Amino acid sequence: MESFSFRLLLLSLLLASFSPAATTLRLTDPQPQLPSTQARKLIRGLNLFPKHSINIIDADHDVTNRSSILLHRPKLVEKPFRFPNFIGSDGASVEELGHHAGYYQIQHSYDAQLFYFYFKSRNSENDPVVIWLSGGPGCSSELALFYENGPFKIGKNLTLVWNEYGWDQASNLLYIDQPTGTGFSYSSDKRDIRHDEKGVSDDLYDFLQAFFTEHPELVKNDFYITGESYAGHYIPAVAARVHQGNKNKEGIHINLKGFAIGNGLTDPAIQYKAYTDYALDMGIITQAQYKRINIIVPVCEAAIKLCGTDGTVSCSAAYLVCNIIFSAITNIAGNINYYDIRKECVGPLCYDFSDMETLLNEKSVRQALGVGNLEFVSCSTTVYSAMLMDWMKDLEVGIPALLDDGIKMLIYAGEYDLICNWLGNSRWVHAMEWSGTKEFGASAEVPFEVSGSEAGLLKSYGPLSFLKVHDAGHMVPMDQPEAALEMLKRWTQGSLSETAVEPKSLVSSI
Predict the structure, then answer these.
(1) Which of 20, 41, 428, 441 would be a feasible disulfide site paired with 270, CB 3.0-4.6 Å?
(2) Is 253 noted as a catalytic residue in this protein?
(3) What GO MF terms are annotated (predicted)?
C-alpha cells in the first residue's frame, strides 16, 4: 500500500517537470513545495512574523495562573479583561463590556492549555453561543477577532474601536486558539501536538464541557460552531463529537443546533478537482493550460483515495501530489492574491495583519489577558506540518448523520476566493448523500438580500443551506461584514431565506 503511494508521488513529480519543447508552459516548480515551505509562504503572505514556530514552553515558564491551573486540573481559569488601548466604550466597566479571556487545562493531555476569548452578546444574554475556529491549520482565531467578525477592529496607533458588524451583536461569542501551540495556547510537552481530527475534536469537546460548567447560565442557549478555511475539517469533526457526547450523555448536554463553514476545505477529492474548472471559468488559465494541469487530477484522486484507506504516509504523498494542481495555477497567475483573485499581492505580501501581532505582544495587553510573558504565535508552522496526515481526509462523511438528526449546516463561500473556492464547495455539498439529497439538488436558487441589495445566492432544503456570497473573497466577514452578520442572524433564527428579519420574530427568539 505505502509503496504504491510513493509510486504515485514519483509519477506526479515526473508530470510536474514535464515540459515538451513544443510549449513554453511550465506547470509548476520541478518539485512540489514542502509543507513547512507552504506554511511559511502562508504566514509571510499575511505579513506575520511569529517569533516561535509553536508555543511549546519550558515547564517553569511564567504564565499567569499556571500554578492554579496545574493544581486544579481540569479547572478553567477565566478573568474579565479590558484592552488598555480600547476606545469608544463611553467609560463602560469591564463587567458591562462582558469581555473575558482564559485558559483551560485540557483534561486528556499531558500539559496542554487552550487560550480563548469570550464576549457576551451586546444584544441579549439569551442569544446563541457561537464558537469561531480559524484555519491554517495553525493560525490563531484572533485573525478573525480583529479583522473579520470580532467586537472591535484595530484602528490607528493600535487602538481598538467598535466593529458595528461584530458577531457579538447577535451571539455570545467564543474564539479559541487551537490546535495546541497556536496563538496563546501552549504546552510543555510535545506529545500534546495534535495530528488529526480526533485529537482536535476531543480537546474542544473537553473545553466546551469546562466552559459550560463555568457558565451554567448559557447551557440552555442554542449552540453553533462556525469558522473558515481549514476549519472545514475541524468543524464537522467537532460537531460530530458534541453530538456523540450528547447522545452518550457523557457530560453537560450542549444544545447543538448547527454548524457553518466559510470557504472551507472539507472534501478534498472533489475540491481539488474543481481548481482547474474554477480557474478556467474566472479567466486565470487558458483552455490549453487547463488540459495540461488536468493530467494530474486522476493521480491526485487516486492518492486521496489511498489516504482514506490507510491514512498514514500515503496522506502526506496525497498532499504533495494534489498541491501540484494548485501550485500550477498560481504559478501561471503570477502575483494574484489566491484569497481574492480581484487583488494582487505585492511581492509575498497579500494582506497586512501585522498590527494584530504587534498588539497582542505588547506587555500591557499580555498582562490584561493574563498570559504573562508568553509570546503570541499568530500562525504555527509546526502545527501546520503536524496536521499533514489529516489534510486529505474527507470530513464530509460524518455530516449526513448530523443532517438527518436535524443539526443545521450552512456552507457559505465568497465568489472570488481561489484556494477554497465556491465551486468546489458547491460540488461537494450537492454530491453529499443524505436523506434530502434529491430535494436539495432540485431546490431553487434564490437571492440573499441585505439592505435592499442582492448580497448572494442561496440554496436551501431542510437543515442544509449553501450561500454563494457576492463581492467577497476567502474571508467573507472581512469583505462583506454587514452581509455576514445578517447571515448569522437569519441562520440562527431559522429565517435565512427571508429578505429581512422581522421585529416580531426577533422578539420571540429572545
Answers:
(1) 428
(2) no
(3) serine-type carboxypeptidase activity
Q: Directed axis angle between helix 231-247 and helix 197-214, to 10°?
A: 60
3 state DSSP class of 58: coil
pLDDT of residue 80: 72
Q: Average pLDDT of the chain?
A: 86
* Catalytic residue (choose from 99, 134, 474, 479): 474
Annotated catalytic residue: which of 417, 426, 443, 460? 417
498 phi, psi to nearest 5 deg: -80, 155
Question: Cα angle vertex 100, ends 165, 129, to 5°?
Answer: 55
CA–CA separation, 398 and 345 (whole Å): 37
pTM for the structure as a whole: 0.89
Over residues 309-319, the pLDDT tens digits come to: 666 788 988 99
Report the Cα 423 to chain-centroid distance in Å.
18
3-state secondary structure 472-493: CCCCHHHHCHHHHHHHHHHHHC
Torsion of CA 437, 441, 445, 448, to 10 degrees: 20
Name 114's bridge partners.
104
Looking at residue 321, its amino acid is V
Residues 413, 271: Cα–Cα separation, whole Å: 13
d(CA 450, CA 432): 29
The DSSP secondary-structure symbol of 394 reads -
Predicted confidence band at 83 (pLDDT cuts at 50, 70, 90)?
Answer: confident
> Which pLDDT score, from 0 to 100, does residue 44 have?
83
Residue in the block written with cell 473573497: 473
Query: 76 or 409: whose pLDDT is higher?
Result: 409
Check if 417 is active-site.
yes
pLDDT tens-digit series, residues 98-119 = 888 999 988 888 999 999 999 9
CA distance 446 to 430: 16
Q: Does the pLDDT at position 13 exceed 80?
A: no
CA distances from 274 to 12, 203, 265, 299, 411 (A): 18, 32, 12, 14, 16
Distance from C-alpha of 229 to C-alpha of 214, rounded to nearest angstrom: 30
Q: Is the peptide bond before 128 cis (omega within 30 degrees of 0)?
A: no
Check 12, 121, 141, 229 and give the catalytic one: 229
Indicate the helix (H) or strand (E) that contains 325.
Answer: helix 313-333
> pLDDT tier at 437 (50, 70, 90 boundaries)?
very high
CA distance 140 to 149: 14
Of the chain, the percentage scoring pLDDT greater than 90 comes to 69
> Who's near 146: CB < 8 A, 6+ residues apart?
152, 153, 154, 353, 355, 356, 359
Stretch 281-307: mean pLDDT: 95
Q: DSSP alpha helices (H): ranges in 46-136?
A: 66-71, 94-97
Could you tell me which residues are beta bridge partners of residue 174?
118, 131
Q: CA 482 to CA 485: how far, in whole Å? A: 5
